[in-house]
Amino acid sequence: MHQKALKVLEFEKIKEQILGHASSSLGKEKVKNLLPSIEFEEVVKLQAETDEAANVFRLKANVPLSGIHDIRAHIKRSVIGGVLSPHELVQIASTIHASRQMKRFIEDMEDEKIEIPILNEHAEQIIPLPHLEESIKNAIDESGEILDSASDLLRNLRNQLRSNEARVREKLESMIRSSNAQKMLSDAIVTIRNDRFVIPVKQEYRGHYGGIIHDQSASGQTLFIEPQAIVQLNNQLQDIRVKEQLEIERILAELSALTAESEMELQVIVDILTNLDFIFAKARYGRQIKGSMPVMNDNGIIRLYKARHPLIPINEVVANDIKLGKDYTTIVITGPNTGGKTVTLKTVGLCTLMAQAGLQIPALDGSELAVFDAVYADIGDEQSIEQSLSTFSSHMVNIVDILNKADFNSLVLFDELGAGTDPGEGAALAISILDEIYKRGSRVIATTHYPELKAYGYNREGVLNASVEFNVETLSPTYKLLLGVPGRSNAFEISKRLGLSAKVIEAARTHVSEDTNQIDKMIASLEKSKRQAETEQEEARDYLKQSEKLHQDLQKQLMDFYEQKDTLFEKAALKAEEMIEQAKDEADKIIRDLRKMRVEKHVEIKEHELIDAKKRLEQATPKIEKSGKILKHKAKKQTFNPGDEVKVLTFGQKGTLLERVSASEWQVQMGIMKMKVKEKDMEYVFTPKQPEYKPMSIVKGRDAEVKLELDLRGERFESALVRVEKYIDDALLSNYSRVSIIHGKGTGALRQGVQEYLKNHRSVKKIRFGDAGEGGTGVTIVEFK
After folding, report:
1. Which of the listed residues 248, 497, 725, 752 has the most CB atoms within 10 Å of its CB?
2. Which domain covers residue 774, as residue numbers?
């Protein structure tokens, strides 16, 4: 990746923000070495692992990443035979414990059916070392002190040490409590010098206690003397201390050897914890900037929705939609300075670098970015005093370098292209440079304030004009990017708002060509139209979301209804079956009793009569049909066509195919509802053609077509019955077998009147209310004889 682009786009500042989210020095080190990748498969994997970590943070409040230390140097020293210090061993135990905690945490999430395959792959590589961790913790406490329990010998030595120290203190305290001690001692205390117990004796009484002088005060008036009476006891204490230190060194050497034996496992633990800390640091940063995972592609397409510059506070930055690479490969942003053009450039460049580094981007879900081999940027004031180069010359040096390297898989960002020289020559150079970079197939975004480049976007295929909106009322830019609309000069409007007289402004207008005035008017009209279109598009998007939610809710309620209906039907059927079984048992008992009576009391009951009675009972048992969900339908390869009648297996309802919406989906009309249904969830229903009936005495005109339903909603009772009567006659003449009459629910008067009329009609076989998919009690279904 081009280092200059990383610098001018301020990628280092992104890394500085991520550093604060790393939990260990290992993770921080990896963040500092973070660079964008140019390998498509690697970028996709990096994005996937960051997304998994983000999902973990969304589901879990905390991730166990504490207690991780950089123990690589400790491992290396133990392998070459070095003895590790207690603090180094504590760090090793802490890191092992952190690895076990993380492994268990990820495995628990897997048990909860949370899909995190990449994190799980990391966790599976961790080899727990409970023996080494336990050995260290049994010997050393968290502060690095060797515990008495480290060995039996150490425990015995320390018991002796405490016992002897008590004897020495007791002996010295008896000395300082004596009657003469108050005048001979500077202070009545027992202290330690050179690991030996001493008392502070005044200079003039130095010979009274005998023994060894170990130290003296700054003034020389006090000597710290080890009395002769305790020299032997102090010698014994010193001997025990030497043995204690030797035992501690033996314990540390043993633990260091154990560490060396686990070198490979410890190296894997360090690597895995480093990666996991780094991954979760990226996810935390993504949450901080309210980022999302972009869809990555390798064909140079950029689609950013509500993208924000990540280094500008969220409450201040303006989000923009930016598209590049499909219908056009070059965007030329024109307009005055201080309008936010450079921010737009940096937003695209920085989002691209972040995405290729595996970071989430500050944009809405569904945003898409390409993996480029290189990102080139010529942004900012490049004047070089050391090289004696002007701003223009410095920019040209950078542009020449870009032209030498850029190709079809490059993203090139030019800020104020051609600036710093004569406007006419600068504009000509800018057009020539854009032409050259366009031929290379690079994706380009360039900003300029030259009006000549407004026409460039109209005259070149694959080039789009754009601008940043300026609010003349407030005399400030809105930082809103307008794709397809070139920038225009606002000098006259700004001057007018600031109080310049109309006379001076009108005089200035006469010096501007008519073509320029017409262009400015056209641009103003385009800006207005685009704002209106964006507002209407936003409203349409909101309506679409509401409609989709309503559709999903209706589908769910319909499915819940049919599931509940099936459950109740099955419960009722099972109950009926149980009752019939009881009745059969009772009947069998009665037949047995009758046979017994026939044998014992010679009552004339013929055997075939008993058999017939039992057969009738069995035939009375209803056959229970299970719900449609339980039955397995064998899929048949069927070619569907619009107008076919089908059965929707997921709802158990019939419907009519309206149109194909995709390779595997159709729009189906089920009663008053329309919904998308997959072909695998449909079954073709064969509808035999009714014999054509052509009455000789009837000639139908062009308006004689009769619909399959009659809508009476809003009709008065009397006129509704007249319409029903005529409609039934027309339906019969059209040879329909079934029709629907929509009367609505309302007070129920219209529904009752219509159904009374239908019940008494001689051609009506039966009537019923519509199913949930047909309109419920607001519709009456009529079947003819």
Report:
1. 248
2. 709-784
